[in-house]
Amino acid sequence: MQVGRVSLSNTKVRSFVEHLYVIIYKIFDHDANEQRIKWRDMIAEYNMAMQILRKRSDYTNEDIEQFQCLIDNFFEKYFAETGNEGITNYIHMLCSGHMKYFMEIHRNLYKYSQQG
Predict the structure, then answer these.
(1) Is residue 64 part of a domain?
(2) In the 3-class helix/strand/coil scheme, how is 74-105 assigned residue by residue?
(3) In the chain, how many domains are there?
(4) What's 56's DSSP letter?
């Protein structure tokens, strides 16, 4: 069986992830309230980290540390829920510290958006 691909613009993907808690609430019924809370918190940490990453102004050292702390918290919960199957290239880049490194070196990644 072949699974179709879905391609969305960056804006649509951001909106989807920012509102993912609505889907999580529907997926996990009242008997799975603990699962709801885990996923809600996980997505909230991810979204807060992405807000820092998408800043148009230069990052402060505090921004960078807060970003990595949020991503570390996200990853701990995410990996506990998904295991190795959930580790994509994007998750690896965030959780391994690669993005933090680029944030420290360049101080602003927005100016490189849409670059090849």
Answers:
(1) yes
(2) HHHHHHHHHHHHHCCHHHHHHHCCHHHHHHHH
(3) 1
(4) S
